[in-house]
Amino acid sequence: MKRLHVHVAVDDLAASVKFYSTMFAAEPTVLKPDYAKWMLDDPRVNFAISARGAPAGLNHLGVQVESTKELAEMNARLQKLEGEVVEEMGTACCYAKSDKYWATDPTGIAWETYHTLDSIPVFGGQAEGECCVPEPVAKVSSCIPVKGKASSGCC
C-alpha cells in the first residue's frame, strides 16, 4: 500500500515538532536534532520536517511504496510524464537508505517516489542546507491564510 509523503523545511524544529505533534495527536516516529517524521495511518501519510538551513516551506512531496514491485509500477507511471525522471538506487537521504525516482510537476514541485530499504544514523551525508531533492522548486501559495487579513476567496 502506498503512502503520501510530505517534507517541509522549518526554521524552528522544536516549535514545529510541538505544533505537528499536537495537530496529529501523535509524537514523531523519528526525532533527530535536525529532523522529525510522523508515520500516520489517519491520514495515511509520511510527514517529515527538517531544519537544515533550507528555505522554510514545502520542500517536496512524494509517494512512499512498500515493495520493489510497487516502485517499478510507479516508475512506469513517471516514464509516461513529459519531463526528466531522476533515478537514485541505494541512495542515502533523510536518515534512510532508499531506491527512488524524482520527477517535477508543471508547477515546479519535486515529487519523489521511493522504497525505503533501511534506516541510517546520519542525514544522508548531505551538507548543511541541502536535502535529497535534486533542486529546490517549491513555491509559496497565495491561498495560505495570513493572520489578520481577510481572504479574497481562493481555493
Task: Describe the structure in your own words.
This protein is of the alpha+beta class and 155 residues long. It contains two helices and eight strands. It has an eight-stranded mixed β-sheet with strand order 2-3-4-1-5-8-7-6, with helices on one face. Strand 7 (96-104) and strand 8 (110-119) form a beta hairpin. The chain is globular, with a radius of gyration of 16 Å. The relative contact order is 0.19. Mean pLDDT is 84; it is low at 136-146 and 149-153.
Write the layout of secondary structure elements.
Layout: E1 3-9, H1 13-24, E2 30-32, E3 35-41, E4 44-50, E5 57-65, H2 68-79, E6 86-93, E7 96-104, E8 110-119
Give the structure's gist in a few sentences:
The chain is α+β, with helices and mostly antiparallel strands.
